[in-house]
């Protein structure tokens, strides 16, 4: 199992960062356009809003990196979600896609008037595409650096 961790500090309170991270609009805003993201479907538990991505939400999306080749379809589930005044996080787990296993931990920690944002992605590629690991690691790294840059841009007044 491989893992990639990245973190940054955003100079706004946790509520502003969480509002961005924990929504479908945030997913769109925080994904680099070169990934060619399309949200196909969102199913949320009865009585909840799919826009808020509550635990139990199932999301089908697709990517077309660099807008080349066929679209890669992915199904994920928000498996965990917690929010307090000082800590907020959720985990999405891939149900189907290129990865044998994928868990993305989206973590926010309040630190006074700032927020520490940490993303941790743990994954395992299937044997048939394991040779792509160096490329996958690079793409995940680019995606997380972009995500943190964009978080600062979106949240900082």
Percent of residues in helical segments?
Answer: 10-25%
Average pLDDT taken over every residue:
93
Alpha-beta classification: alpha+beta
For the record, the count of structural domains works out to: 1
Order of strands in the sheet with the most strands? 1-7-6-5-4-3-2
The proportion of strand residues reads 35-45%
In short:
Helices cover 24% and strands 43% of the residues. It contains 3 helices and 7 strands, in the order E-H-H-E-E-E-E-E-E-H.
Overview of this structure, please?
The protein has 157 residues and is α+β, with helices and mostly antiparallel strands. The protein has one domain: Alpha-D-Glucose-1,6-Bisphosphate, Chain A, domain 4 (2-Layer Sandwich), CATH 3.30.530. The protein is built from 3 helices and 7 strands. The model has no long low-confidence stretch (mean pLDDT 93).
What are the main properties of this structure?
single chain; 157 residues; alpha+beta; Alpha-D-Glucose-1,6-Bisphosphate, Chain A, domain 4; 7-stranded antiparallel beta sheet; 3 helices; 7 strands; 24% helix; 43% strand; globular
Topology (elements, then pairings):
Elements: E1 2-10, H1 14-21, H2 24-30, E2 38-43, E3 58-63, E4 72-83, E5 87-96, E6 99-111, E7 114-125, H3 133-155
Antiparallel strand pairs: 1-7, 2-3, 3-4, 4-5, 5-6, 6-7
């Amino acid at each position: 199992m491989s893992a990639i961790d990245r973190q940054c500090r955003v100079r706004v309170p946790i509520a502003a960062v969480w509002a961005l991270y924990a929504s479908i609009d945030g997913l769109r805003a925080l994904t680099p356009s070169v990934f060619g993201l399309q949200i196909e479907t969102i199913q949320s538990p009865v009585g909840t809003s799919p826009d808020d991505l509550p635990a139990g939400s199932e999301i089908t999306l697709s990517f077309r990196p660099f807008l080349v080749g066929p679209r890669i379809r992915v199904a994920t589930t928000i498996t965990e979600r917690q929010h307090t005044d000082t800590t907020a996080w959720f985990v999405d787990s891939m149900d189907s896609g290129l990865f044998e296993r994928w868990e993305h931990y989206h973590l926010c920690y309040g630190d006074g008037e700032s927020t520490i944002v940490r993303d941790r992605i743990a994954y395992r590629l299937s044997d048939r595409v394991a040779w792509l690991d160096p490329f996958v690691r690079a793409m995940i790294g680019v995606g997380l650096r972009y995500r943190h840059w964009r978080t600062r841009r979106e949240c900082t007044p």
